[in-house]
Amino acid sequence: MLFDTDNNQFYYNAGDETASNWLALLSSENKRDNHVLVKSESDFPAPSGGVITLDSQTLYEINGTVTLSASIDLNGAYLIGQDTNEDVLNYSGGSSLFVGDGSGNLRNVTLINAGTGNLFNLTAASSSERLIGQSVVVSGFNSVGSVSGYGLVFFNVFQFIGNADGITYTYINSLLLNYIGWQINNNGTYETFTGTFNFIQKSSGFSYVGASSTGIDVSSNPTLNKGVIKNVVFNGSGDFVKPYSGFNTYAGYNFDINWDIDCVGIPRESDNNASGNI
Is there a domain that residue 278 lies in? Predict the structure, then answer.
């Protein structure tokens, strides 16, 4: 065993007298494969055409605040942090932070922008693609952007702060939104649903809607087999829901007959709540 005074690290010889193989004690043997610790933009793959395409077999771990001007194509990779207070992607570009047509996973990270760009510009190549996010803070974007065509989108424990406009979901087979928090300092329309869905579930969380903003927009009459919004608190002086219109809708209610709604701040809509006179 020896001690390297430059690296402040003990090393041991895992080889023999003729072929030495010096390894750092308690580090080199246990190093993970397919794992990149990202402390600056240069730790990502080199961008091409302004887009960083991640390796689908690699986990990228954000360490501290990383500022980047290029967009990211998740390309099926994992992009994570360990602490949303400390592990931050600061996007300084004017396009969209996340672009592409593949799957991706985000976890335990804060995503920020100075109002110059969007967060998502994602259109899946096929319905087999999945977009999953867990414990993410989104702050300061010109728009949260658009997500379209995925087989599954699952966002759990997201907080949106100070974004100029919200997100549009289009043509998604299964859309699951759990514990989503929209602060009052967001603007525009927080969540818009357009096109065709198989299933939408939005549960728990809150939408604190400012005077000039809208919580949910379904005015394009999206079609779906079943929609459920439960235990979400709507608060504020803005428009909580921009409603459906036309066939299968009823005066004083926001959604069509394919939805089950039970939330604070908006009318309850459910077959169990129906009544009539004969």
Answer: no
Looking at the domain assignment, is residue 228 inside a domain?
Answer: yes
The per-residue pLDDT of the chain, averaged, comes to: 94
Closest CA to 76 of 2, 19, 14, 126: 126
> Rounded to whole angstroms, how far apart are CA atoms 93 and 115?
10
**Whether the model pTM is above 0.70:** yes
The sign of the torsion formed by the CA atoms of 47, 48, 49, 53 equals: negative
Q: Identify whether residues 20 and 74 lie together within a single domain.
A: no
Residues 142 and 101 in one domain: yes
Q: What is the DSSP letter of 42?
A: G
User: Do 186 and 161 contact (CB within 8 A), yes or no?
Assistant: yes
Phi, then psi, of 212 in degrees rounded to 5: -105, 15
- Alpha-carbon distance 120 to 89, whole Å? 14
Residues 6+ apart with CB under 8 A from 90: 65, 66, 67, 68, 112, 113
Q: What is the pLDDT of residues 191-240, one digit of tens each?
A: 999 999 999 999 999 999 999 999 999 999 999 999 999 999 999 999 99
User: What's residue 273's pLDDT?
Assistant: 57
Are 26 and 73 in the same domain? no
H/E stretch holding 189 reads strand 189-194
pLDDT at 10: 75
Phi, psi of 126 (to 5 degrees): -160, 170
Give the Å distances, CA to CA, from 29 to 22, 34, 68, 143, 269.
Answer: 11, 14, 32, 44, 58
